Amino acid sequence: MSAPALLPLAGRRLPALNLGASSFPHHRATLRLSEKFILLLILSAFITLCFGAFFFLPDSSKHKRFDLGLEDVLIPHVDTSKGGKHLGGFLIHGQGHDEHRHREEEERLRNKIRADHEKALEEAKEKLKKSRDEIQAEIQTEKNKVVQEMKKKDSKPLPPVPLPNLIGINSGEPADPDIREKRNKIKEMMKHAWDNYRQYGWGHNELKPIARKGHSTNIFGNSQMGATIVDALDTLYIMGLHDEFREGQEWIDKNLDFSVNSEVSVFEVNIRFIGGLLAAYYLSGQEVFKIKAVQLAGKLLPAFNTPTGIPWAMVNLKSGVGRNWGWASAGSSILAEFGTLHMEFVHLSYLTGDPVYYNKVMHIRKLLQKMDRPNGLYPNYLNPRTGRWGQHHTSVGGLGDSFYEYLLKAWLMSDKTDTEARKMYDDAIENTWTQQRIVEEFYHPNDKDQAIEKHLIRKSNGGLTFIGEWKNGHLERKMGHLTCFAGGMFALGADGSRDDKAGHYLQLGAEIAHTCHESYDRTTLKLGPEAFKFDGGVEAVAVRQNEKYYILRPEVIETYWYMWRFTHDPKYRQWGWEATQAIDKYCRVSGGFSGVKDVYSSSPTYDDVQQSFFLAETLKYLYLLFSNDDLLPLDNWVFNTEAHPLPVLHLANTTLSGNPAYR
Fold this sequence. Notes:
Involved in the maturation of Asn-linked oligosaccharides. Progressively trim alpha-1,2-linked mannose residues from Man(9)GlcNAc(2) to produce Man(5)GlcNAc(2). Ca(2+) binds at residue 641. By secondary structure, the protein is mainly α. It has a domain at 177-433 and 449-647: Glycosyltransferase, CATH 1.50.10. It contains 20 helices and 21 strands. The strands form 9 sheets. It has a 3-stranded antiparallel beta sheet with strand order 5-6-7. The chain has a 3-stranded antiparallel beta sheet with strand order 10-13-14, with no helix packed on it. Helix 9 (287-300) packs across helix 11 and helix 16 runs parallel beside helix 18 (555-567). The two termini are 34 Å apart.
């Protein structure tokens, strides 16, 4: 999963009269003099404006057509059966009737406006006679009506779509009692995390387990959207925690509202909320999850209203206004964010029969294919206004990671028919990451092929394979915890790779898994740091203090699970159990689980955050690691970058031609 962006518009409020309690006696009153004066002033201004507009209506003797653009609303349609032609709300007869008809319509409109003004003035006078409580009750009633109308609009029925073949959604019980005991321990950890969130942070996005209260970051905006509930649903389901699952479903049904004035990360909301809701729908069959996912997706679409179609990083769910993170290379969009929408958006088009979601993500792909890439690499930043790359920084960790992951998974999710996605993935792997990893040579800027072959993957002096970051022609010999997902990705993509290189990529995945395990094993707590270096005698160790923390991240365990599925080498379960014990020992507190600030300290301090992805990813991957392969088999399910399983769509191609609703 990509690193959450670390930075977040205040919304507008309609002007309201100050109807404070001091303005009224206890039982009944009129408004204070100053408030009366203000209200009457507003009313008089409104009436003056409207009557001014009335007196300046166009003269029909000078204009053959009077058109406010609201004919269908303001002017009744005339019966066209009497020899006339209807046009734009008007009936066009012979020339002799035109002027007379226009005068009649204008007079009718003047009378209507005059009557409406008189009615509005009478209503305003009546309002001035009412008490504060009566006014507030009326306002609340109107608000409730608006909310109900919006819910009706959002709850329109979706077309019936046949569900894909859903295999292995509630099995995986291991026969080995030792493995079963370990799996049950992980299930108990999930229940501890959920129960404490339920008690202390319910409805909040995340939990502060030590302070025992809700927590949120700017990626979720300023609203309580229950991110942990949505993120944890599928984990609860596959673990058989069905009472807890129903608790989450009930909250979502009654409280999850996307019509809030809140600015959110498009990427994070897509992978956590839409991904989580879609997975919960496929696993449980409960329609509420599908409906909520489609409602939210509609709120994200305005983010794509840019000159290039590359979406903004953030969007206000109410206003639809989007913008980018200020720190992201002169207002650029981030590769891992706009490149990590494909899986969820294809499923949205499949379930709704609406191609808009599919078209949005395919437009991004086509644009990227047309662009020149510096030295064959995809930089992490792209300006959505100009369509130009930002600074030339390439990473398989944060800012870039899940873009490559989704190319591979688009192919897998399409039942291996989306060959375009597979080609883009293979090109990225071969041209960007494959190199001579034993002997390093100097970078020759004029030798393009050599530069591409040796960009990112290296072997350290101590024999550890690592993936560095490319920054403006220079390889930074540092690997992030986020980058550790790539071991699993290489293994997942081995089958189907070009030139019979399946064995090579499976071995590469194993080498990355080994390096990432070393980053855990070389710490005091046996938990991996956020980033670790390979400089001189320092290998797989964090050097900077601000890189020594562990925030319950899943990427290393994710790679262990994929490597276990493809090799069944027992060391991956052993490494996973080591991580489980370390998390339970050092991150568990009475109020849940917390990240730690220094994995090299024997007396670590807590960051006091139970991340939603801990329940969505870390505990899920651990549970799957100690389950049989018939639980969510990889031939039938593809996991999004937040570990939400989505079924393979056995369609003729990714244009959804196999979807009856789409046809």
